[in-house]
Amino acid sequence: MKAAVLNKIGARFEIEDITVDEPRGAEVLVDVKGSALCHSDLSVSQNDYGHPMPAVLGHEVAGVVAAVGPLVGGLRPGDKVVGCLTGFCGQCEECVSGQIWMCARPGAAARGDDLPPRLSRAGTPVTQVSGLAAFAEQMLVHESNLVKVHDDVPLVQAALLGCGVITGAGAAINTAKIRFGDTVAVIGCGGVGLSTIQGAALCGAAQIIAIDTAESKLELSRRFGATDTVLASKDDAVNAVLDLTGGKGVQHSFEVVGSPGTAKQALSMLRRGGVAYMIGMQRPGTELVIDPFADLVLRQRSVHGVYMGSTNFKKDIPHYAQLYVQGRFNLDDLVSQTIGLEDINDAYDDLQAGRVIRSVIAF
Predict the structure, then answer these.
(1) CA distances from 45 to 11, 41, 333 (A)
(2) Where in the numbering of this chain does the Enoyl reductase (ER) domain appear (predicted)?
(3) Would you place residue 285 in the very low, low, confident or very high pLDDT band (cuts 50, 70, 90)?
(4) How far apart are alpha carbons 189 and 276 in whole angstroms?
(5) Exposed (0-12), middle (13-18) or buried (19+): which is 214, by Cβ within 10 Å?
(6) Among 95, 117, 264, 325, fewest CB within 10 Å belongs to which?
(7) Percent of the chain topping pLDDT 90
(8) Hey, what domains does the chain have and what are their CATH numbers?
(9) pLDDT tens digits for range 294-312
(10) To 10 degrees, what angle do helices 237-244 and 260-268 make?
């Protein structure tokens, strides 16, 4: 099958023929129909997070089940599914309590060393990053990485549900538990940031301030529920938020960019007792300098790390899909363009330049 292969850190993706094994045990073979280009995969391709090369990346994905292993119980060929990188064991304390995003044994969904690799090239193993490897015509994954979705959801849009949507909307709904009438600021209006805004709007936030350096993204943010916008390339984001909130600051700030500068801004724009949620993927070794007494204790503020929107994706993804079908959840405006697999490098150039929200590879 064709796949976009990363052969070394910092290199461009190369379209190559690789081999995918047959499903064994609780594995599922999926014909990929939509695979979105998330900024996290770009970060992984440019920074060494410890993944052996060569590798296939891609984790925002939807497709159709092609075949199942003998131990698969809940899926069958023809089912529409969305993939999610939070594979889980289903047996640890966290999983039993429903917190699968905190699974103590996420590696349980990987194939054992006693079996051949799921992906290979001329007999050499190809790393399956995030347990999915969705930048390919097919993917072979454990059934715990998949969830069935409504037949009426287009698979290009459905692909976004697997990471960007649940991370952003989940941060607002599940992690922050925004209450009716709360005030919110979101720094970074890409796919995750817009989903955070949409999640805050669903919760009934009274004021949602969108912050970005691109006017086009700020205009788009209003379609997702932003009540105010700040052009950070022109205005100081912290001062602007304070002005918009009568000098108080917001109760919830979300950093979705992944830089220490915007992380510090997220903390500084909080009102007394507020919480700054760190969502953006920082480079390895990044440090955030905080004065614990002045920044946290005196003002009773907190910093909270967010992973995958604290989402039980088996429950939440079908719900978001249903809201989309009902016309109550916006996925369409997150898709900037559909592309072919061979266009992946140009599409990532577009993402880096801020010209798109999400490009989706359509097969």
Answers:
(1) 7, 6, 26
(2) 10-361
(3) confident
(4) 16
(5) middle
(6) 325
(7) 92
(8) 2-148+331-362 (3.90.180.10), 168-307 (3.40.50.720)
(9) 999 999 999 999 999 999 9
(10) 20
